[in-house]
Structures are given as structure tokens and as C-alpha cells.
């Protein structure tokens, strides 16, 4: 153990002869190398001592363990400035957990309250029985980090919970609650928290006295299907994994490792797991997903705001203006987290449809079995409709979600100032309009903030919180807290046209339009981008959001960034012919009754017309671009804009842009987000390619920004901290 150990375990031996070993490593009792070494020492002592008959393992303060210490992965991967001290192959999994703990002549029982994740659950599964509270959650979420369980989980979970359920738990990374764990046989009993330790102690002694079964889960076989059947289940899981995540290898590795244990025996499985775990730990996928894990937790750490010691005020009631798609989605998200909400509309008809949308959103959860009818009624009862501002006198927060019209928004904010109490937060869900402009007719600039949700608002995980130079830190802290309560990942950004997400991604569609006008095939572009891992390509996305929205937001960029906006008339030409996207069943694709998108040969005539208006010709090189080139020509302009956003201080950290791209645009998390991905190419390469295209095609659109040019000249990652950013925050 180092001089400054990171966590420990303690051991207390009671008069009953039971040694209780407690994992102590706040905040989640993770298994650092120090904890593991202390656990091993305690075990060896307990097994050696004559006064110890049995052992109970538990975690401090209502948390069993959040798993292996993820912060140690960087060191094991050999990152700069970190100590690399990986245990020797098989040491923890085989030597300590299997051959010392599980094989011991003294029984162990895991006493589980709260989380038992990853390595935490694996330690619990090595024990000869598991007792939990009703509050416990058990899972193996390693695949969400690009690795597989490494302490025997791939072998023991199928033997305890059955092969199909174990595969489901590992491949989805979703934990189960204690009742389900009990029905699966993963835990042996559920008891109240204040009886957890006493029951576990008694249980351990009863195992010793052979009054309860002494189970070594590694060698259990009763839950495993005969080999042929097991292979069918494994092959089905493989096919599903290939379909759901074609770019990822580690789910297939996980299935292979499980299979090895079933075919060649669990010890062979343990060794294969150990080797595969070590290999995956060094993969790009794991590094990217770890970056996302920490980046996501980093978004709520904002220098000069969250370090001021402010406590979030309690938001008891929220009002929403506008019951359209966005307003009703936001209302759904809020009532789902128990916030009473007033939804205001301009007339009965609109109000009724707004409330109808919230009802439909909730009903869809009931249909999917995710919500009971009783909960549905209770949740919907939190929503009240309004046609005037009378009910706004005691609201703590208003979120305006009306159409993107500056003068309308200005009028609304002036009204809000009159009707809402002085402490009330005045938020706008605008996706592009400058907040200073929206608040121009008020004196309340310190409580004006952007709460930019993404559609559908009750589903999409990102909340872009936009602050102006005058927004008070208290209001930011309050909105961060609301964001957490409604289970969104908040990213705090500065005020500018399009903020961070829409601004970074405006070149996405534009680059695709530029290519199409010069001969690249629409559907090949969408295919290449989807293959890369985006949920859909730029054209399918345009169809989904609708051409009306695409043109309205596009025009904001034309006005604000004319020198680098690619002006194509393709979308407007199609719109003139009443092709406006999925809602009109025709856009870049045609949609059948089941809303399936099919390519449309008629598209050529619009492309030709747009090409003539733009005065460009088909470029033979662009007409047969490789997928790799398509990817670079579409995404490097996005990287370029992300660099501008970062250099202007719109985002505090480059990792915030990574999270914004993943959560707001569906950028594949296993590629680490836009800036992290860009750094895998290096600034020099990206800059030289943009420069080349800038000379060949559209000067302004591709021109590398000064930040990129500077980084390319000096070398070094695009995401390294800014020394002299003119922060707008
Ligand atoms: C060999 C083994 O098979 C390999 C493994 O075990 S890999 C690890 C498997 N475990 C996991 O994947 C769990 C990851 N953690 C989580 O999902 C969530 O943090 C949690 C559900 C445990 C808790 O969630 P929540 O209460 O919302 O708190 P959250 O903000 O996420 O985490 C609190 C802090 O604990 C840290 N933390 C969480 N899990 C950790 C872990 N396993 N190791 C180290 N730190 C961890 C977070 O980074 C965060 O730190 P911060 O306060 O400095 O930002």
C-alpha cells in the first residue's frame, strides 16, 4: 500500500466468531488497488485466525461498492504522469478471489446495501451467499466502459442468474433491483437495512453449520442449459450484438469469454476473461468511453460557479409557455420528476393539444410497461393548463418554449417580469436566439438563462444551459440542480448564435449539401455517416426535424456567420414543391405507411436545379468519394466550428463539447466526442485537409479557423486547456 492509500477495508471480529470486512473508499467504495490489497490482507488474516469462524463483506454507508476504481484505469493504461501498477495476470481474479476467498474453509456472506456494481458485484458473487436490502442494485456495467467484467463476473453471473439473463445484464449494462435479484437467485434473502449485518452474520454461521447451502458459484451448473442450447443462446446474443453495435468488438469478446467457460470449464473461462480484460483496457473504445464517463461528471464542475458554495434553491412549481412539441416534451420531463407544472397556451385548442401531447408521452410509457396506470394518473395530475398569467404569481421557474420569433419572445419576457415573483428564474428554450436580445425589454438580466432541451425533450439526455454575462451564479446552480433532478446531463455554455450544439453542428448539413451539389450521392453520404455510428445521416436528420426548422435555423447562421455559411437552395426548392420532410412523407427520402424511409429517384431533378443556381458543376472526384473522405469532409468542418466555440470560451472545457456532441447530436460515445475524436487525427492533418478543400471548393466554408491553424503550427491536442480564451462565461 502507498503512503497515502486510496481507500481501505477494516475488519472487526465479533464474539460470535464472524469477521466483518467493510469496504471504505468514498464516494462509491470503489475497489482501488489499495482497497483490493487491504481486502486481501484482511482475508488472509481472517482465514488464519482461530477466533474467526466465518466472514461477512460489506460496504460503508449504504453502498456495497461501485466496482473497480475507474480512476486507476488511466495508470494501468500507462497515461502520462500516472503510475502504472497493474496486478500480475490472474492475481485478483484467480489467486485471491477464487483460490483464497471462494475456496476457503471458512464461509463468506456478502451484505449488500445500495450499489453492487462491476467488481463490487463480482466480489459479492465470490461469497457463498448474498443478503441484500430492498434498496440494493446489482449489475455488471463494464461493457459501458468498453471492457468486460474482469473479476470472474462473466463466469459466475451466468451460473447464478442463468445464461440469458446474465448476457442481458452484461450486454445492456443495466443493473437489477433486489427483488429481481432474489427471484433470479442472485441474492438469497432481502432484509431491512438495520437487520442486514446481523442476518448476514447468522447466515454465515449457518453455512458453516451446514444449515444453509455452502455454494461456490463458479462451479454451479444447475442454471446452465445443456451445451447445444447454451450455444444457441450465445449465437443469438452474438447476432443481436452485431446488429445493435456493429462497430464494437467488446460485446462479442464478452460472449466468447462466457462461451469458453461453458465449453471448457469455468477456470479456463476465468483465464480467458483475464487476458481479454487486459487487452480491452488498452483499446481506443475503452479510452473513449472512459473519457465520456469522466467528461459527463465534469460538466457540473464550473469554475467560478459551482465552487462558490451556493446551495440550489428549491424549485416547487414550474410554468411552461407553449405546448408545442418542445413545450410538451419539457412538461413531460418535469412532471415525470414530480414537479407541478402549469402549461400556458394562447387558446383552448392549442392548450388541449399541448396537454394531449404530454398525456400521449406518458401513455407511451404505460404501453411499454414502464409505468403503471396509477402512476400515470398521479403524474398527469401534476399538470395544469392556463390561458393567462394569473397562476404564475407563485412559480419559481418559467421555461418559455414558443416559436423562434424575437419580438414575441421579448414581449413574453416583459410580461413574465410583471407577473412572476422577483426570485423566479426566467428561462428560454430558444435554440439559436441571443438571450440578451430576448431580455432586452426587461430589467431582469440576472435571472434570464437558456434552458435548451433537445427533441424529444423527455427522452434526449442533454440540457444545454446558456448563461449570459449577467446571469447570476445562483440561477445557474438552481438550473443545474433541476437538470440533475430530471435526469439530464447539463452542459453550461456561453451566449452566442446557436450556442454550442447547434453551432458546432450547423456545418454538418451544409458540408453534405456542398458535396451533393458537386455530385456525391445523398444516400451514400447518409450511409457512410451511419456506418461511422451516428444514429442517422444529415439528410435523414433534415427529414426528421422538418425543412421548416432546418431553413429557420439555417437562416440564423447565414445572418450571423455569412463568411462561412454554404448557401444551397436545395432544401428551399424541395420545400416549394411541398416536400418538407417526414411529416409531408417526402423529403430527401419518401416515407411509406410504416414511416420507413426509401430513396427517391426524383431527388435528382431538385439537385440539378440547385446545382445550376449555385453555378457549380459535378466534380468527378467528389462523385466517387470513399466513405472515409465523406466522413472527413462532413465532420472536419464540424471540428473546425467546435474549435471556434472552444477558443471563444463558449464552452469551459473541450470535454463539455464532447459531451454536448454525444448527448445532443448522437455522436458515437465510443469515439469519445467530437474534440476527442479530432485529436485522434491530430490538428495538423485536419488543418491541412480543410486548407486543401478550402482552395479546391468553397474558400469560406472550409477555411480552418485561427485556433486550429495555431494548434497545427505548434502541435499538441485541440482539447488541451486554453491559456488565454476570451471566456464569455
Ligand atoms: C474488474 C471489474 O470488472 C471492472 C470494474 O469494476 S469497472 C467499474 C464498474 N463500475 C461502474 O461502471 C460503475 C460506474 N459508476 C456509476 O455508474 C455511477 O458513478 C454510480 C451509479 C456508481 C453512482 O452514480 P451517482 O450517485 O450519480 O454518482 P456519480 O456522480 O456518477 O459518481 C460520484 C463520484 O464517484 C466516482 N465514481 C463512480 N464510480 C466510480 C468507480 N467505479 N471508480 C472510481 N470512481 C467512481 C465518479 O467519478 C464521481 O466522482 P466525482 O464526484 O469526482 O465526479
From TrEMBL:
Keywords: Fatty acid metabolism, Isomerase, Lipid metabolism, Lyase, Multifunctional enzyme, NAD, Oxidoreductase, Peroxisome. GO terms for biological process: fatty acid beta-oxidation. It catalyses: a (3E)-enoyl-CoA = a 4-saturated (2E)-enoyl-CoA; a (3Z)-enoyl-CoA = a 4-saturated (2E)-enoyl-CoA; a (3S)-3-hydroxyacyl-CoA = a (2E)-enoyl-CoA + H2O; (3S)-3-hydroxybutanoyl-CoA = (3R)-3-hydroxybutanoyl-CoA. Residues 498-591 form the 3-hydroxyacyl-CoA dehydrogenase C-terminal domain. It comes from the Eukaryota. It is found in: Peroxisome. Signal peptide: none annotated. Residues 317-495 form the 3-hydroxyacyl-CoA dehydrogenase NAD binding domain. Transmembrane segments: none annotated. It holds the Pfam family ECH_1. One of its GO terms (cellular component) is peroxisome. Pathway: Lipid metabolism; fatty acid beta-oxidation. One of its GO terms (molecular function) is enoyl-CoA hydratase activity. Its main location: other. The keyword Lyase applies. InterPro entries: 3-OHacyl-CoA_DH_CS (IPR006180), 3-OHacyl-CoA_DH_NAD-bd (IPR006176), 3HC_DH_C (IPR006108), 6-PGluconate_DH-like_C_sf (IPR008927), ClpP/crotonase-like_dom_sf (IPR029045), Enoyl-CoA_hyd/isom_CS (IPR018376), Enoyl-CoA_hydra/iso (IPR001753), NAD(P)-bd_dom_sf (IPR036291). PANTHER family: 3-HYDROXYACYL-COA DEHYROGENASE, PEROXISOMAL FATTY ACID BETA-OXIDATION MULTIFUNCTIONAL PROTEIN MFP2. In the N-terminal section; belongs to the enoyl-CoA hydratase/isomerase family. This is 3-hydroxyacyl-CoA dehydrogenase. The lineage of its organism: Eukaryota, Viridiplantae, Streptophyta, Embryophyta, Tracheophyta.
